[in-house]
Amino acid sequence: MSFDKPLHVAVLMGGWANERQVSLTSGAGVADALESRGHRVTRIDMGRDVALKLHEAKPDVVFNALHGVPGEDGTVQGMLDLMGLAYTHSGLATSVIAIDKQLTKQALVPHGIPMPGGRIVTRDELYQRDPLPRPYVLKPVNEGSSVGVAIVTENSNVGNPISPDANGPWQEFAELLAEPFIKGRELTAAVLDGPDGPRALGVTELVVKNGFYDYENKYTEGRTEHVFPAKLPAEITALCEAYALKAHQVLGCHGTSRTDFRWDEEAGEDGLFVLETNTQPGMTPLSLVPEQAAGCGISYADLVEMLCAEGLRVHALKKGGSGGAADPA
């Protein structure tokens, strides 16, 4: 990736979400990669004065390395739109929908993308009765990185019905999404925008050594094996890539996205379900999008520059112009 001139990139990271530490790691990696390519970088650990810092920095493009709320839910995207700044990853409307697992279902299922059923429940309902037959999954409606996910089984040490004193996401979140538990294998497929449009990078299987692919197993080295490319029947690989690409397009994602699946191999193609689409995938050493990109011959620094270029391209389209001297050559 080459540019007419080196960029000035503000890397937005940190913040106050549950995923703060992951975001700081992602942001540091992104900033280092940009500096290695000769770009000027302003590192911003997001606080309440973020708009002032961005106004003072006057970057060519903002690399959004935030995860969770408010960096992934449309809040920061709306602020950047109001400020007239170019930024990486998806825009306001896409972010609002994709962070909300129930809204994502409403957007994707009508387009033929299979997702588990389920419904929103309050913690008071959980304390009275199970919302679904066990086993079932409880997860926050608008958190990422498997924050606050619990699998409730017949043998769960939470009581039946769930006890208010039992440890679980019901103690932190007033509302949760209850879904049927899909047994089987954990898969994920990334999509990356490029000069020729979006393309799926492949499918990774996540083999967790103990438990399931929760926050700790995602970001603790050695707890999860990443098998890329996943050892799957060709038709399942193709279906994962097709669903990931369609989700990216239906939701209106930009830059990159990652769609997560569960696959019950006993049911064949009918056993494949999309769990969610992540519009702000991590950029840490253990993150899946950089790993899949590397498997396709795209280095980490190349990936970061591609995301910046896409952010500039989208911004230029919004303005109805060519994007100026900072456009990729």
Description:
The protein is α+β, with helices and mostly antiparallel strands and 329 residues long. Helices cover 33% and strands 22% of the residues. The protein has a five-stranded antiparallel sheet. Strand 8 and strand 9 form a beta hairpin. Helix 1 (20-36) crosses helix 10. The radius of gyration is 20 Å and the shape is globular. The model is unreliable at 213-220 and 322-329 (pLDDT under 50).
* Share of residues in strands: 15-25%
User: Spans of 5+ residues with little confidence (pLDDT < 50)?
Assistant: 213-220, 322-329
Number of helices: 10
Largest sheet: 5 strands, antiparallel
Radius of gyration: 20 Å
Query: How far apart lie the N and C ends?
Result: 8 Å
How confident overall, as mean pLDDT? 91
What is the general shape?
A: globular
SSE arrangement, N to C: EHEHEHHHEHEEEEEHEHEEHH
Q: What's the β-strand tally? A: 12
As a percent range, the share of helical residues equals: 25-40%
How are the strands of the biggest sheet laid out side by side? 10-9-8-11-12
Q: Quickly give the structural class.
A: alpha+beta
Write the layout of secondary structure elements.
Layout: E1 8-13, H1 20-36, E2 40-45, H2 50-57, E3 61-64, H3 75-83, H4 92-99, H5 101-108, E4 119-122, H6 123-128, E5 136-139, E6 150-152, E7 175-180, E8 185-194, E9 197-208, H7 215-219, E10 224-227, H8 234-251, E11 256-263, E12 272-278, H9 288-295, H10 300-319
Parallel strand pairs: 1-2, 1-3
Antiparallel strand pairs: 4-7, 5-6, 5-7, 8-9, 8-11, 9-10, 11-12
Helix pairs in contact: 1-10
